[in-house]
């Protein structure tokens, strides 16, 4: 599984990092960024939870 964050949509609420800190971080401005090229299988459930929790739907699985 691969995930991306649409930087034009993200408003920095941080749900991604709260749900999947192994996959997401916040950059120096507080916006989400993806830490991995491919989400390891053991973190896929957390990454999907982050995707579903994002209030602006800025995270996409590709």
Automatic annotation (TrEMBL):
Write down what this protein is called: Ferredoxin
Superkingdom of source: Bacteria
Q: Which cofactor does it need?
A: [3Fe-4S] cluster
Please tell me whether the keyword Isomerase is annotated for this protein: no
What SUPFAM superfamilies would the database entry show? Answer: 4Fe-4S ferredoxins
Give the UniProt keywords, A-Z. Answer: 3Fe-4S, Electron transport, Iron, Iron-sulfur, Metal-binding, Transport
Question: Does this UniProt record's set of keywords contain Electron transport?
Answer: yes
What single Pfam family name could you report for this chain, choosing any that match?
Fer4_15
Q: Which organism is it from?
A: Microtetraspora glauca
